[in-house]
Amino acid sequence: MTIRYEANPPKILPNVDTNESIIKFIKRIKEISKKCDSIHLTENVLGFQRVSPIEIGKIIRKEIPDLPITVSLRVRDKTKEEILEFVEKYITEGFSGILILMGDPSQTGQKDSGQIPSTTMQNLRAQGIDSKIDLYLSISNKPDFTKIVKKIQAKPKGFMTQVVQNTEQAQNLSDNLKGFLIIPIILFPSEKNEKSAKFLNLDLASYSQTFDEFVKRVHEITGDVLLTSPNDFNGLNKFLEKQVI
């Protein structure tokens, strides 16, 4: 049974001291890692340039050596060679898993490389990479299972979902993807996360009053949950302080 925390590395912005941003970020990871089992680092969410998850991961591994770290790997802006280079670095640095996903379009106008997550997964498995690190693919919170055959045939260790809004979505994924680890993503309901909820077409009110029970029930179904709170670290941190699963 696992409770994970999704962390977005600091953005690289003009007139902002990146080193200070990293120090603040690591401080938060140290704090919340006492209340969860694993950290998932994202890569360039929404296409914005951020500090490399490899750089962040190195620091976390040094500061909290026993904390498992999974990481997102965008393929839309990387060649096959670049993908393999990143994967080998993650293995060398001791990361526990990689979520291979297309990623959001680049905000700098960079063209897509043409790489596809399921094909990338197959290529990495053909090279025996899956024996060195866990490999995951992303999946919709309500997929058409007849249209994700390539993802299933790629044989990832499991799937990290889009943000789920109810237990039925988690149950449906679990029932139809037996043999795969299912990691549902849940957005912490708070006023500060309303903008993210609207972007994801989520109705936070549908579970905000019973959030603790919602998390527990989803966790019972899949044995694994990834909590995200992009704009309200303190709110989720306080929730985890009193949450026992």
Kindly describe this structure.
With 245 residues, the protein is an alpha/beta fold. Helices cover 38% and strands 18% of the residues. It contains 9 helices and 8 strands. Strands 1-2-3-4-5-6-7-8 form an 8-stranded parallel β-barrel, surrounded by 5 helices. Strand 2, helix 2 and strand 3 form a beta-alpha-beta unit. The chain is globular, with a radius of gyration of 17 Å. The model has no long low-confidence stretch (mean pLDDT 93).
Please provide a brief summary of the model.
The protein is α/β, with parallel strands linked by helices. The chain has a single domain (2-242), classed as Alpha-Beta Barrel (TIM Barrel).
Please tag this protein with its features.
single chain, about 240 residues, alpha/beta, TIM Barrel, 8 strands
CATH architecture: Alpha-Beta Barrel
Strand order, largest beta sheet: 1-2-3-4-5-6-7-8
Order of helices and strands: EHEHEHEHEHEHEHHEH
User: Which class do the helix and strand fractions yield?
Assistant: alpha/beta
Low-confidence stretches: none
First CA to last CA: what distance? 9 Å
How many extended strands?
A: 8
Biggest sheet descriptor: 8 strands, parallel, barrel
- Helix proportion: 25-40%
Mean pLDDT: 93
Task: Give the strand content.
Answer: 15-25%
Output the number of helix runs. Answer: 9
Question: What's the arrangement of secondary structure elements?
Answer:
Elements: E1 2-7, H1 18-32, E2 38-41, H2 53-63, E3 69-74, H3 80-92, E4 97-101, H4 117-126, E5 134-139, H5 149-153, E6 158-163, H6 167-176, E7 181-187, H7 194-199, H8 211-222, E8 224-228, H9 233-242
Helix pairs in contact: 1-2, 6-8
